[in-house]
Every structure is written in C-alpha cells, then in structure tokens.
Amino acid sequence: xxxxxxxxxxxxxxxxxxxxxxxxxxxxxxxxxxxxxxxxxxxxxxxxxxxxxxxxxxxxxxxxxxxxxxxxxxxxxxxxxxxxxxxxxxxxxxxxxxxxxxxxxxxxxxxxxxxxxxxxxxxxxxxxxxxxxxxxxxxxxxxxxxxxxxxxxxxxxxxxxxxxxxxxxxxxxxxxxxxxxxxxxxxxxxxxxxxxxxxxxxxxxxxxxxxxxxxxxxxxxxxxxxxxxxxxxxxxxxxxxxxxxxxxxxxxxxxxxxxxxxxxxxxxxxxxxxxxxxxxxxxxxxxxxxxxxxxxxxxxxxxxxxxxxxxxxxxxxxxxxxxxxxxxxxxxxxxxxxxxxxxxxxxxxxxxxxxxxxxxxxxxxxxxxxxxxxxxxxxxxxxxxxxxxxxxxxxxxxxxxxxxxxx
Length: 407
Description:
30 strands; Methylamine Dehydrogenase, Chain H; 39% strand; globular; five-stranded mixed beta sheet; 2 helices; disordered N terminus; mainly beta
C-alpha cells in the first residue's frame, strides 16, 4: 500500500550495553500442514529427500528473519539485508540472485525489514565502544535498486533510547519499540511522538516489550498491541496505552497464565476488520467488534493445543482478497509448518499435493512466517535454520523450491 504520511528523519546515536541482551532474546523469540481428513499428516521442511533448488545464492541453512516486497524487489534479512528482483526467473540474469544491500556505516547486521509501499524500513544493529547500538533506517523506493551501489540510508527519529524492533500497522503507520536502560516504551514514528503509559497496570509493559501491533478499524486512531502476557489498546490521538480488561473473559489459560509455555506470539488485522491473535500453546483467537472467540473446531484444538507439547504459533500474514487459492491468513508454527485460516472458522494445512519437496510427517517443522506476493503469485516460507522456500501452483499442484546454492 502507498502511504502519504511524512516522517521527520534525523540521525540519533544512543548506545546501551544492556541492549545486546535484548537483541539476542528478540531474535530468538522471533524464531522461537494438507488437509488432515484422509491423510492426517503434517509436512516437514526439515528433512529433504527430493528437492528442487533454484541456485539463487542463499546458504542451505540460512536463517530468514523477515521478507517484504517493494517496487518489484524482494528484501530479506538473513540477518544481512539482501534483495533480488521479484519477477526475474532466468538464472544468470541480473536480479536473479540474492544480492547484499550496503549497510549504514557502523552497523553490521539487521533485525527486520518491512515496507509501507513507499519506503523501505530496516532495523540495523552494530557494535560500539559502549556495547551495542541499533537504529531504524529508511530509504524511499525510488532511491534503491538492484543495480545501485551505496544506499543513502536515513535514520528515523524515534526519540530517546535504542530501537528494539518496529512494526508497520495495516494502515501503514510505523511504531518502534524503544529500550532505555531496563525498560521498554512505544514510539509513534509516523506521528513523531511517544506513546505514554499513564495507568499503573501498564507499568508491566515497561518490563515486557510489545511484540506485535495491529490497527483497529472501528477506532481510526486505535491500535491493539501485545506483549508476551498482555493485550493493550493504544490510542494514537491521546498518545495513551491501556490494558484490555475484557480479554480475561476468554476462558483459556494463555491470557492470564504464568506458565512459561503460554503467552502471545502474533497479532494481525485482516481486510474484513477482524483481528487474529496467536499463542505459544496452540490457540488462535478472533477479535470481532470488541468480542473475543476461540478460532477453529475441537479437532483443531486437539491437534495443536491438547498435547503434552503444544504447538507454538508464530507470526501471521494476511493474503485475503488476493488470488485463490492463496487468499488466506497464514500462521507459522514452531513444530507443525504453517496453517491457513479462511475467516469462517476453518483451518487448513500445507497442501498434500506438494511436489519436489519431502514435506512429510515430522514434529520438527519450523516456519517462522509465510509471505505471499500476488504480483508473481508466489508464496514464501521463512525458516530459522532451513533457508527460504517459494511455492507456486503448477498444474493445480503447489510445488516448492528452495532458494539456495546447488550442492
């Protein structure tokens, strides 16, 4: 989507030794299935027997932290920032391979890449004499290309403190999570202002960083934010953040349990104005007009939640409104590949007709997230230890290839 917002940009250099610990934790948390009817199996991309590799220069075990598309180019963090042309499918042609994108001076790695349709945003991390430093940088789409040399990065003003991570909500507003000493806060990058915490209960947020943010359409200036244990409503107009009390009415443990296996993991607003929330112990919740409900049927709960080691759902991606059969909501998981949500209460799994890759039964499937690009009709699976996969429908079958160097 295209954004008409303006952002004030300036260079800031705040450093914090303790920040290094958060960065390690943040990246590890970020990396922390086929109709089940007749077949009843889950596919794995950990065990490869018959694989098509496109030789696009990625390492076979590369960790893929994030992926986005902007102006005909794909960008990934591995954790280095790389790019390739989205529509280039001829080996050897310029734009076919993943190319390293130059970093700002003083920075060595990346945490996340995302786009609002106009600019590319990257969270860069580096070393300093005081420990580690990090910042949120941006570049307009017209100022970056596959064939260009240096990139004229500009650091985005985020107030005081270190940038821990950032989010682009569905209406293209940008928020940064800021770490200062041992506490966290939220900065509205688009509005150029801090989000305050005037309520005693939000003191909890200071020690539990927000891990996802989504826009709430029924409140044009309101957003939902989650930490590991809490759900908040951010009012951008008043720059306040408050906990959502009614969330405790949902009769499931993840909302108020102290068990470390519980907790929230992902949040997304879809095009029909509903919000979906994933948990670390196999639940997906739907938020519709202020009402929470558990998503999926009993079979879904038995498969993912009612187990000794429940499935940890991770990030989500919304492809509703795009070309069928990809028009779904996708949720990655720590041990069951990914699931699809169709918005009617039905949950699906990776297509049983997949060819070329042995996505067979396994408890070790780990897909951090899924990304769909409607322009090229390509679906991507991002993994923490097994590089990047792309899927395309050919002869009514979803065929997967791995974007890595050939052996």
